[in-house]
Write a structure and sequence with these properties.
The chain is mostly helical. It is built from 15 helices and no strands. It has a single domain, classed as Growth Hormone, Chain: A, CATH 1.20.1250.20. The N terminus is likely disordered.
Length: about 400
């Protein structure tokens, strides 16, 4: 096995230069399979919930409990993991995720899932993800021997995730139509094993561990985020985009079944359209995401999200909805990934785990809040009007923040 600490001697093309590091190659491959499985599971869980109950409110609740633990315990988890061996912790959490998917497969196959058990399994998934997501992000730096290649590694990781968003949902829709949700959950459990194999093969460079109690470590990270003005502004952008734009994910089953009179395959195409836009966004960042452009990408991404929401709200044929979702996926990804690149590149190594955990907490936590609100509002006024309201609010807030920034 190649030494993961050796600086690579053969350069790769600039857009994929981080793959020159052998340890990152192995981690990247395992991550690719694992992330694809995650998206298959997410689509299967949402479709099963709406298929069983026809309730937009339940979709909002499931979206909330899946993501809310990121906001509630994610930052504390980040402080705790900064004091331990992140690789070993990720191996343990990935194993639990595989077992959870196996349990879902068994319950779905035996037709034992109902609204309450689906919420319970979604909550367990959210708790595990509150540890797993920041661990995966914070570990990337240890698999890249040259710190100058870290921004590219982050872009490639985002590209991988969004490629899975493009491929995974249509694949899940086809699998559900062919064999049901249980097979999707079983395949997800197998996919999680791929990242486990990768983690067992590589160790990465040793990262410095934070000293002190978890409370002290947490406060140190919070102090850095609050007292660093640029970081604070970036975190506000994360909140605004994800509470208003990312809420669309909770309503996709409603659009697929009730608006476009489709089935699980229709849901897969809707989700896949957003994934396609997100994947294109990561390509743009890989080729032209220089540090000087990231701020403009964040603002432009928010405006594009507003346009996508308004386009999705307007009555129109399915191809129009697919284009709007592509714009949404592109805008959300450009904004979030640009923010993540700025945060991780500027954070001290000893604080990176906490910075990542706070970013992820806000990213997914406010998506959870947005999804819960969207589900509740859609139950009263319909999914289309809910999306239109979110788009209008996002546009107004984004323009107001940009005017205020230019006046400073």
């Amino acid at each position: 096995m190649p030494d993961p600490h050796r600086v690579p001697v053969r350069a790769w093309p600039a857009p994929v230069r981080a793959l020159a590091h052998p340890a990152f190659q192995i981690y990247f491959t395992g991550q690719a399979v694992s992330t694809l499985g995650k998206w298959v599971q997410q689509v299967a869980l949402a479709w099963l919930a709406y298929h069983l109950t026809d309730s937009p409110t339940l979709l909002g609740v499931i979206a909330f409990v899946t993501l809310a633990p990121q906001l509630l315990i994610g930052p504390i988890a980040g402080a705790w993991t900064d004091r331990h061996d992140k690789r070993r912790l990720l191996i343990a959490v990935q194993t639990l995720l595989a077992l959870q998917s196996l349990a879902l497969a068994g319950l779905a196959y035996a037709h034992l899932l109902n609204a309450s058990s689906l919420v319970g399994m979604a909550l367990l998934l959210g708790l595990l993800n509150a540890f797993e997501t920041p661990l995966r992000q914070a570990l990337i730096g240890s698999f890249v021997a040259d710190p100058a290649d870290l921004p590219n590694a982050l872009v490639l990781n985002a590209m991988l995730i969004n490629a899975a968003r493009f491929v995974g949902p249509p694949l899940a829709g086809a699998l559900i139509a062919w064999a049901g949700e249980a097979l999707c959950f079983l395949l997800t459990a197998l996919a999680f094993s791929a990242l486990l194999v990768g983690l067992l093969k590589v160790r990465g460079s040793p990262a410095s561990k934070a000293s002190g109690s978890t409370r002290e470590v947490f406060r140190e990270g919070l102090r850095y985020l609050w007292c660093t003005l640029d970081v604070r502004h970036l975190m506000v952008s994360v909140v605004v985009v994800n509470v208003l734009a990312s809420c669309y994910t909770a309503l996709l089953p409603v659009l697929a079944k009730s608006v476009y009179q489709g089935d699980a395959r229709t849901l897969g195409w809707l989700w896949g359209a957003a994934g396609a836009g997100a994947f294109v966004a990561t390509l743009v960042l890989a080729f032209s995401g220089s540090s000087s452009r990231l701020r403009r990408f964040i603002t432009a991404g928010a405006v594009l999200c507003a346009a996508g929401l308004l386009g999705l709200a307007a009555p129109g044929p399915l191809p129009v909805a697919l284009l709007a979702l592509g714009a949404l996926g592109f805008g959300i990804t450009v904004s979030n990934v640009s923010t993540n690149m700025q945060l991780q590149s500027g954070a001290p190594s000893a604080l990176r785990g906490r910075v990542v955990s706070f970013y992820i907490a806000l990213r997914f936590g406010f998506e959870a809040i947005g999804g819960l609100l969207a589900g509740a509002v859609a139950a009263q006024v319909g999914a289309s009007l809910t999306l239109g309201l979110a788009g209008g609010m996002l546009l107004v807030v984004t323009v107001a923040r940009e005017i205020a920034r230019r006046r400073r």
